[in-house]
Design a protein that fits this description.
The protein is of the alpha/beta class and about 280 residues long. It is built from nine helices and seven strands, in the order H-H-H-E-H-E-H-E-H-E-H-E-H-E-H-E. Strands 3-2-1-4-5-7-6 form a seven-stranded mixed sheet, with helices on both faces. Strand 2, helix 5 and strand 3 form a beta-alpha-beta unit. Helix 6 packs parallel to helix 7. Its EC number is 2.1.1.33. One of its GO terms (molecular function) is tRNA (guanine(46)-N7)-methyltransferase activity. This is tRNA (guanine(46)-N(7))-methyltransferase. It is an enzyme of class 2 (transferase).
Length: about 280
Amino acid sequence: MAWTATATLCCRLIRLPSARHPTPSRARCSAAQSPDAVDKEYADLNLRPLYTNRGQHLRIRQHVNPLSSSFSEPTEPPEWNEVFEDPLLPLMVDIGCGSGRFLIWLAKNSSQRRNYLGLEIREKLVERTQFWVNELGLRNVHFMFANATVSFEQIISSYPGPLSLVSILCPDPHFKKRRHKRRVLQSPLVDSITKNLCLGGRVLIQSDVLEVAADMRERFDGHSDILAHVDSVDKDLHCDNEGWLLDNPMGIRTEREIHAELEGATIYRRMYQKIRDASH
C-alpha cells in the first residue's frame, strides 16, 4: 500500500527485505500501471485539475542518449532573480528530476528555506512541470531542460547562493556495458558537484538497481578526503552492514521509488556531507 505524503513525514520508510541480486533487466513501471500509488503520495499538490490543460500522460521517450550531438552543448544558466524570489537562499538540485513532482512537493512542504532546481533531459517533461509550477504560483522552484552531465558546472557555478544539496535518484541504469558511458554520473559531474557544494552541503544518491547504486557510490567514495558519509557525522542516520542507508531522509518518495517498492525492489541509498574544501 502506498503511503501518503503526510504519513511519510511522520515516520521514515520501513526498509524492505533485502534483494541483493536484482535481475539484469527490469520493466520500468510507468505511472499508468500504478496511478493510485503516485496520486496518493502527492495528493496535497492537487495537480489533477491541471491535467486538463497539460496532459497527465505525455508521450515521453523513456530512454534518451545523452551523448547525442543535440545534448553536447552546455545549457546557459537562467537569470536567477527572475526564476527565484530570493536567489541567495541555499539551493537543492535534483539531477534527472523526471516529472518534477518530488521537487515540487519539497518546494511546497519543506520547512527549510531553500530554492529547488530540477534538471531534466526530456524537454516535454520540463515544459509540463514548469507549467505546474507557474499554476501553483511557487517562486522557490524552477525546472530546466538540460543535460546535467555537461551543463551542471556552467549552471550551478553562476548561482549566487550556496549549493546545499544535490540528489541523483534512480537515474536511467543503461544496463548494457557498452552504454555505461551514457549514465548521468560521470567523473566530470562528480568533480563539479564536489567542488560547488558548500561546506556542510550534502549529496544523496539512490537506485533500485544495486549495480547502478554501487557505481555511484564508488565515484563519491573516491572523494573521501572531501566528502564523508553522513553516518559518520549524523548519528541519526543509520546504515545496514553494507553501508546503505536504512531510511529515506527526504520525507517523500520519488515516483520511481514508489513503483520499485510496489515491485518488491530494495532501494539502495548513500548520503555524503562535504567536510572540507579541496584546497585544504
